[in-house]
Write a structure and sequence with these properties.
By secondary structure, the chain is an alpha+beta fold. It has seven helices and eight strands; from the N terminus they run H-H-H-E-E-H-H-E-E-E-E-E-E-H-H. The radius of gyration is 21 Å and the shape is globular.
């Protein structure tokens, strides 16, 4: 009975807060860029994925035969070539030094910040100057591979490290703290069109928040946390359970 009362009370509080927020800022539209409904996949497979016969997961097929499955790809760029294209895009600073690599309908989709279109991304991302703030930064990137179920997407992992010895022009701007920044392992991806232009970039998705000293935060949010300058909003700080969540668990 107590759990039911807590649940009902929590639901009521959330309902009130949602109503107040909608009244002040307007009710979210399904067309809002931050609603995260996602884009439909542009390319797939001509048939079902192929599975290996080496082992079963709980009695079911679960491990994809990547090479055989990618052979069914409907995307015109071969996987090996697409990985090279992705690495070239990464080397260009995600298109900052060569805008022709970015599609007109490009979206930058980080884990917290609402998606940015092409122009906003080039303007905002280009202003961060992270390599100047951390001149010794090493991305420690590895495992570049094509998604067998979405053959125009390249995934890779990174485990960035660096030292904040330069000025960081983010927000009010931050002088060097000389603090070491160690991000958690982050999963990243790029989606490409048939012209080999990137039309979606996802970076900063932490895989294990126990790794590093950013409190489990990726990208710029993790950097600010590690140097002692976290953003003054819950989204910019390490995750903590809400009072409602704690009550329910």
């Amino acid at each position: 009975l107590m759990s039911a009362c807590i649940y009902v009370a929590s639901a009521g509080i959330i309902k009130v807060l949602t109503t107040v927020t909608d009244t002040i800022f307007g009710k979210p539209s399904i067309d809002a860029p931050w609603s995260r409904l996602g884009r439909p996949a542009r390319y797939g497979l001509s048939g079902d994925p192929v599975f290996t016969e080496s082992r079963l997961f709980d009695g079911r097929q679960g491990e994809i035969d990547v090479k055989a499955t990618l052979a069914k790809s409907t995307f015109p760029v071969p996987p090996e070539e697409l990985v090279t294209v992705a690495k070239d895009f990464l080397a260009s600073g995600f298109g900052l030094t060569d805008g022709s690599k970015i599609a007109d309908d490009f979206l930058f989709c980080p884990p917290v910040v609402m998606p940015l279109n092409r122009d906003d991304f080039l303007r905002i991302f280009g202003s961060f100057k992270i390599t100047e703030a951390l001149p010794d930064m090493c991305e420690n990137a590895w495992n570049f591979h094509v998604d067998p179920l979405e053959p125009n997407r390249v995934w890779w992992l990174s485990r960035n490290v660096g030292t904040h010895t330069g000025y960081l022009p983010f927000g009010p701007g931050y002088a060097p703290t000389n603090k070491r920044v160690e991000w958690p392992v982050q999963a990243n991806s790029m989606l490409f069109n048939e012209k080999k232009q990137c039309y979606q970039l996802t970076v900063g998705y932490a895989c294990d928040k126990q790794i590093g000293n950013t409190g489990g935060l990726g990208a710029v949010f993790g950097l600010l946390q590690a140097v002692g300058k976290p953003l003054p909003v819950p989204e910019g700080r390490p995750w903590r359970p809400s009072p409602v969540y704690r009550l329910l668990t």
